[in-house]
């Protein structure tokens, strides 16, 4: 059982209950196993984002977000990052508070989600300078990437959090879509995505499909699976890809996860 399944809110405890672009969206607080309070953004019954209410905006609640940080193990100076899918802005807030020089572009298609993130997920606890380094665009991720490539903008890190439940965003899993991602990366840039999938058996098809698509575009692909004890059950898998000059496998294998 993963974090998404452990805790749920009740309708009478909702701080927000509205219809957004992708369905019924609720914001509510729950008590985690360790007694801390989690504020959750729930879309159609799936936790899209969460933040610890009692600790500040940048203490990452989701293990897959913490695993994104393995990209820092690679010999890449991350000064410009792109987050595809904003949610409650959990990872962008984390980046600007932990990397003093990073500028983070965020693309979120739903303006209501952006408003909820700023109003309910402690964005105001960032300093003015930290807030200024998060640049939010309300729009389509593919269109944003096309514009970035046309203008010659490149990123050291592109993180894809556009996956909805168990279905990755098809436009960015095609060879053409991933080639666009690659063109938006700096020479040693890293692409990272979360894929909800089993690791073995029939339910592993989403992960196998993503890895195969990435392998056709990037020279190196590495997956860190978070459901080690139950490989036949869907869980989070963080997939890294690069065509950089360093060894991605060596960089990730050096982690102490």
Report on the architecture of this protein.
The protein has 257 residues and is an alpha/beta fold. The chain has 2 domains: 50 residues, no CATH class; 191 residues, 3-Layer(aba) Sandwich (Rossmann fold), CATH 3.40.50.150. Helix content is 28%, strand content 31%. The chain has 9 helices and 11 strands. The strands form 2 sheets. It has a 7-stranded mixed sheet, with helices on both faces. The chain has a 4-stranded antiparallel sheet with strand order 1-2-3-4, covered by helices on one side. Strand 8, helix 7 and strand 9 form a beta-alpha-beta unit. Helix 6 packs across helix 7.
Key attributes of the depicted protein:
7-stranded mixed sheet; 257 residues; 9 helices; globular; 11 strands; 4-stranded antiparallel sheet; Rossmann fold; alpha/beta; 2 domains; 28% helix
